Amino acid sequence: MAEKVLMKGNEAIAEAAIKAGCRHYFGYPITPQTEVAAYMAKRMPKIGGVFLQAESEISAINMVYGVAGTGMRVMTSSSSPGISLKQEGISYIAGADLPALIVNVQRGGPGLGGIQPSQSDYFQATKGGGHGDYRLIVLAPASVQEMADMTVLAFDLAEKYRVPSMLLADGTMGQMMEPVELPEVDYKPTEKDWTVTGTQMKRKHNIVNSLYLLPEELEKTNLERFERYKTIEENEARYESFMMEDAEYCVVAFGIASRVSKNAVIAARNMGIKVGMIRPITLWPFPKKPLAEAAEKVKGFLSVELSMGQMIEDVKLAIECKKPVSLCNRVGGMIPTPEQVLESIKKMAGGER
Amino acid sequence: MKRVTVFSGHYGSGKTNIAVNYALDLGSMGHKVSIADLDIVNPYFRTKDSEELFRQNGVELISLPFANTSVDLPSLPSAAYGLFERRDRKVVIDLGGDDRGALALGRFVPYIREENDYEMIFVVNFYRPLTTTVEDAYEVFKEIEYASKIKFTKIVNNSNLGTETTSDDVLKTDALAKKLAEMTDTELLFTSVEDSLFEGVSKVLGRDKTFSMKLQEKLF
Predict the structure, then answer these.
(1) Across the interface, which of B11, B43, B127 has its CB nearest the CB of A5?
(2) Which residues on chain A are in Cβ contact (under 8 Å) with B160?
(3) Contacts across the A-B interface (CB distance below 8 Å)
(4) Alpha-carbon distance A151 to A105, whole Å?
């Protein structure tokens, strides 16, 4: 009926995935992402897709592995503890060079933690998480609209590079409702020469596997994969720059933290503090270049996170520690207020102007 | 006006906001009012968020011991049984979303039927993705009736696009709500709008058919 609909972030992910051509969803419920599964359970049977609630997260990720091997678009979703359970399967998918989407709507940790929002799975998402040398393309939406748009992007990028991608959201992004214009996607499955879809005796069979017993061979697959990662780093780093033109200080924040920080940046500007914000949209590849450039101009950085300080390490690496970087954070399911961020900005800038 | 009013509807249709405002309205008319949170689906955005407001306005809140504690346990408050014995009070019941949420009402249905002084209200927002058409809304309507074991008597049109809602957005859905009422042999009780849209919308729909709402405080 209407062009816009009012959606929860979790629902936006699910509907956008369907629009992007995903017809296979495997998952296991966990707060605060259960709406993804609930939505898929309603929609998939109506469009000839598969919704399957597996007996565990481990089972679900291995079903994803299976479908990914056929080249079809497939996804799973969970929240922090459930994503930990999936790590073995994610490593296998990465090792077998398969595209798939994994959604993590983060909650506070470690352990069972709580059901309130958090960003403390940053390390897990961007530095591996499972075993072995591998990367995920990690996207960090900051609105319900972006939950939808980045789901589509995550599928596209995963397929383009044959790498699993992760949508790294948090409990607020998953639960909040905002009007959304759902993306219209013209997805046509492409012919792929690596899928296991039956040879019909017409071609040599393909093998999907992550086991290489000859070290020379395993080394070769690793090196080839990292060549691809290099291309991704060169081409796919995304970020949003906010009020950075004349900025003397730079806030770095993603997801819900960037929404809070934006308000604080505006408030600081009204006080005469020249501050801007760089919001990483891809957490891997991390937008190193704009940060390195900013380091030549600004006097200091402030990393705002819902963690004990994880992204701050990548900020320091990106700017090669050329300028001081401080941290403004809350953890355990708490969210920093704009006032708290503003105080940190004032402190960084040496007080009010 | 009936003694017991149950708000049910699809997930995220705005049941809680309506129930909260409706209970406060009843209170301001001088009734003794209890509002019961029987949402076993969603651990967030609960009736309990308005606890302070109820206290100030003398509305009794009956809520789960686990509500808003982040303990994600679907259970029902034992005090809910009292709602059907203390018949000097008006009762507003806020159910969880969809058929799963409506299941919670099942055990109270015999009491509701026996007293036979209730409205069972279907709340609909035509801007929610799974109820954008009358047909889709009808499907959810029937699923909930099946799960709750009791028939709806009225419909509330709560169509909105959150903070971006305009009067036109609301008015556009009036025909859909009336169609749904016709298909289900119920009545459209009112169309609810956020306070600031009340004047514009009620001019078209009539003051008695428009319900003015204050939204719950934004948590983040």
Answers:
(1) B127
(2) 6
(3) 62
(4) 13
Structure tokens at B181: 């009422």
**CATH fold of the domain at A4-199+222-235:** Rossmann fold (3.40.50)
**Pick from B70, B161, B220: which is nearest to A4 by CB?**
B161
Listed residue (A177, A188, A311, A171) closest to A254, CA to CA: A311
Written as six digits, the tokens of B146 are 């099946």
SS3 content of chain A, % helix, strand, coil (to 5): 40, 20, 40
The predicted-structure confidence for B36-88, as pLDDT tens digits, reads as follows 999 888 888 888 889 999 999 999 999 987 777 777 777 888 899 999 999 99
Residues 6+ apart with CB under 8 A from A133: A222, A225, A226
Interface ipTM: 0.90
Residue listed under structure tokens 């040496």: A350
Structure tokens at B62: 């009956």
Block residue for tokens 């859905």? B173
Closest CA to B194 of B10, B21, B12: B21
Average pLDDT for residues A178-191, to the nearest whole number?
93
DSSP string, A14-68: HHHHHHTT--EEEE---TTSHHHHHHHHHHGGGGT-EEEE-SSHHHHHHHHHHHH
Q: Which residues pair with A24 in a beta bridge?
A: A50, A74
Contact between A328 and A315 under an 8 Å Cβ cutoff? The reply is no
Same fold, A4-199+222-235 and A240-348: yes
Chain A residues whose CB is inside 8 A of the B134 CB are none
The average confidence (pLDDT) of chain A is: 96
Whole-angstrom distance, CA of residue B105 vs CA of residue B121: 13
| Helix, strand, coil content of chain B in percent (nearest 5) | 45, 20, 35
The SS3 of residue A294 is helix
Q: What angle do CA B159, A147, B39 make, to 5 degrees?
A: 50
Write down the domain spans for chain A: 4-199+222-235, 240-348
Check CB contact under 8 Å for B161 and A179. yes
Q: What tokens appear for A11 in the block?
A: 């629902």
Domains located in chain B, CATH noted: 4-213 (3.40.50.300)
Q: Where are the alpha helices (DSSP H) in A176-323?
A: 215-235, 255-270, 288-295, 311-318
Tens of pLDDT, residue by residue over B85-136, are: 999 999 999 999 988 899 999 999 999 999 999 999 999 999 999 999 999 9
Q: How far apart are the first and last CA of chain B?
A: 37
> What architecture (CATH level 2) is domain A240-348?
3-Layer(aba) Sandwich (3.40)
In sequence order, the β-bridge partners of residue B35 are B61, B92
CB A123 within 8 A of CB A136: no
Pick from B150, B135, B158: nearest CA to B103: B150
pLDDT at residue A1 greater than cutoff 50: no
